[in-house]
Amino acid sequence: MLSEREYKMIIDQLNEYSSKIPTDTKKKLRKKLKEHEYATKLAPFEPLPHTLWFINHTTSEKTLHKLIEFANTATEFIVDTESWSIFNQRNKPVLLQLQMLSSTDPSYICYW
Questions:
Q1: How many CB atoms lie within 10 A of CB 23?
Q2: Which end of the chain is less enclosed by CB atoms within 10 A, N or C?
Q3: How far apart are CA 108 and CA 53, in angstroms?
């Protein structure tokens, strides 16, 4: 967040010297103002409680059973995928993310 002095200085620069300031510098100053505006108006983001699980070929059977049990009681599921984009080729899948939400417990987020 900007101090009051920094904020006024940026406003003055944009108002008085706008024609003399390079375009990329103007963009940076405007971005600082927007971030300051967000910081003063919005509360910081705080994620809900959750547990992360990274699943691969070394994941134990016990862990997998625990995740399956949690999935059976979960009320909502959120799925997200990521892939590598390779020019002139099909995308290569690289990550699967599954968030399981429960009405009573912290959610589980699983990465494959």
A1: 7
A2: N
A3: 7
